[in-house]
Structure formats: structure tokens, C-alpha cells
TrEMBL record, chains A, B:
HAMAP family: RecR. The keyword Zinc-finger applies. InterPro entries: DNA_Rcmb_RecR, Rcmb_RecR, Rcmb_RecR_Znf, TOPRIM_dom, TOPRIM_RecR. May play a role in DNA repair. It seems to be involved in an RecBC-independent recombinational process of DNA repair. It may act with RecF and RecO. It holds the Pfam family Toprim_4. It comes from Streptococcus minor. Residues 80-175 form the Toprim domain. This is Recombination protein RecR. One of its GO terms (biological process) is DNA repair. The keyword Zinc applies. SUPFAM superfamilies: Recombination protein RecR. Belongs to the RecR family. Keywords: DNA damage, DNA recombination, DNA repair, Metal-binding, Zinc, Zinc-finger.
Length: 198, 198
């Protein structure tokens, strides 16, 4: 024997989550049993509700509980700018700084030649359709500063520039608070290349 | 705005788990949304079932889905020995080695003078009642090798020895595979004290 069935099953469910192995899953399962009934009921309800009520915005691909999403529906936002991100978490990160007031487009992935993921495998086609009859004048590519992020950024710029749309990307340089001593070489290189006048 | 309500609520539920902060909870919540419907339904069901179906054995205090638990009900087990552990996970660890065939007693905590947890705050009284009219001849104290574990072990031995019950505890020494170089001083001290003849 190991654990009684109900806890064994709960451990199995927990260990399906990313980064959670059997030991952590076991700790979480035992902790769950000690939690208030109410809290666990709420947890189960939230799991089901998140799956049931959330979908992707048919315009921008952002995760939403209404379609189109709150951002696409918001008339006060700048309709001339679209910021392209990899996933909905990036939208939230960007919204948190309360500085960007344009629209978004969520790719749900990045072009990754190494992993055989091409432009057709991510949410790119809908961006092109979206741009075709719109007044968008600038597309800001805000993919991660990784190889796949760069590949995606290059591809988007190659496709959109001929259409006369201004394509920009987030600045590369030293992160605020970063130590030059510990910065990697590529970051330093970009930081010198993109130096700004004081 | 941050996240749509259903995901914000799910993040909140995840972050109530031990060792899971908001960043991890967010990652888990987004991952959950990408999981198969079936898997998430199962997860929610398992959460509720674990809370509903599990309780503590009225005899030994072990986590169980039947009362008395499978071990207490098992007539093939040695009724003369009780192994005392801190929680149900320790029971499983012990059962895994398939070497111990006696009964258990789960304390649900340890005596901790530093934290004001005394003998009455853990599942100890029921052990004394249990021993009173039983044929138990040996009690093995298998609490963790920590200060609280030692305190609990000392207390149990002080209470049970006068009643003529043999009280033993798990051996202290080098863990199998351990490097002497990296062993802490107390472990080395115990390893020398408890050296065995070859």
C-alpha cells in the first residue's frame, strides 16, 4: 500500500502541473487536506470556471472572458498602434506599466526554426488580415529577447515593411538596476550600439 | 485591468498553496487553461474527493478513506509493535521499504517547547489510551532527527518506560551514500557513538 486512493489521485493531478514533481505534489496534496473545506471548494470551482469561461479574443487572440476582449472593445484606446506579444501574460505585464494605450496581438507562440515552428503555426495570419483594412500605422514587436523572439521579430518586420507599416521593437540594453560586470556580452553589445544621448 | 476575473481567481487559489507565490501561481493558472478539459475536470473532482473522503483513523491517526485504516484492520500485522511518526507521509515512507510489519501511531505534530506546542497539542493522549489495554511490547519512536523530533522522542520515552514498555528510536548515523567530508558534526558524533561491530 501507499496512499489511500483519494490522495493518490490528488497527487497525480498536482504532478501534472509544470515544474511540480511527485514530492512537491505529495506535499501540496497533504496540505490541501488540511485546508478549510471552503477554500478547497473554491479552488475546484475556480479550476472549472477558468476552463469554461475563458477563451481567446477573436480579434487580438488575448485571453478573455468576453469576445471581443475588454481592450479591443475599449474605444478610448489608440487604434493606430498594435503591440505584438507571445502570450497573454505579456499583455498583462505591459498593461501593468500603464504607459501603452494601443491595441495588442497575441501570437500564442514564436517562430522557432529549430523546433520546426513556422509562421503558419502561430497566430500571425489573423494579424495580417487585421492589418489589411485598418488604419494601423505602427506595429511594435514585443517578443522576448531570445533567438526565437528575434526570429519572429525579423519575420514580422520583413512581411509588414513592404506594406508601408512602421515596425519597431522594444529597446535592447541593460536592465534597470543591472550590473555591467554581470551583464552578458550580447546585452553589453546591444547597450553600446543603442546608446542614447544624455 | 490585469487578468480576466476567472483567471485572477484561479491564480488566487493556486497562490494559497504552500511555496507557491504569485508568479508561479500565474504560470500554473495559464498552464491549466491550456490543459485538456478532462484533466482539469478530474483535478477539480480529485480536490473535492480528497477533502470529502479522507479522514484520520480513529485508532492510529493515519490518513485513511476507511475507519479504522487498512493497517489497523490488517490481521496479519504484528500487534506488539507500534511505530510513532509525525505525519501520514512518514507512514508511507516506512511502508515503502516493506520491512516494518507492526502498527503505527501518527502524532500530527511534534512537541516543540520553542513554539509552545506541548504533549497535549499533538495526538499523544490517544497513544497512551491505546497502550493501556494492549499487548504492545515495543514502541519505536520514528520522529525526525530535529530538535523537536528529539524533544518528542525524549518525552515519549520518559512517559512509557515506567510502564514497562520498551522504547526504541531509529538509528542515528551517516546516511547511506553520504560523504564523511560533508557530514555535519552532530551526525558524525552520533555515527561514532553508535558504531557497530563488523
Amino acid at each position: 500500500m501507499l496512499y489511500p486512493t483519494p490522495i493518490a489521485k490528488l497527487i497525480e493531478s498536482y504532478s501534472k502541473l509544470p515544474g511540480i514533481g511527485v514530492k512537491t505534489a505529495t506535499r501540496l496534496a497533504f496540505y490541501t487536506i488540511g485546508m478549510e473545506d471552503e477554500v478547497v471548494n473554491e479552488f475546484a470551482k475556480n479550476l472549472l470556471a477558468a476552463k469554461r469561461e475563458l477563451s481567446y479574443c477573436s480579434i487580438c487572440g488575448n485571453l478573455t472572458d468576453q469576445d471581443p476582449c475588454a481592450i479591443c472593445q475599449d474605444d478610448t484606446r489608440d487604434k493606430f498602434t498594435i503591440l505584438i506579444v507571445e502570450d497573454s501574460r505579456d499583455v498583462s505585464a505591459m498593461e501593468n506599466i500603464q504607459e501603452y494605450h494601443g491595441l495588442y496581438h497575441v501570437l500564442h507562440g514564436l517562430i522557432s526554426p529549430m523546433n520546426g515552428i513556422g509562421p503558419d503555426d502561430i497566430n500571425l495570419k489573423s494579424l495580417l488580415t487585421r492589418l489589411m483594412d485598418s488604419e494601423v500605422s505602427e506595429v511594435i514587436v514585443a517578443t522576448n529577447a531570445t533567438a526565437d523572439g528575434e526570429a519572429t521579430s525579423m519575420y514580422i518586420s520583413r512581411v509588414l515593411k513592404p506594406a508601408g507599416i512602421k515596425v519597431t521593437r522594444l529597446a535592447r540594453g541593460l536592465a534597470v538596476g543591472a550590473d555591467i560586470e554581470y551583464a552578458d556580452e550580447l546585452t553589453l553589445l546591444r547597450a553600446i550600439e543603442n546608446r542614447t544621448e544624455l
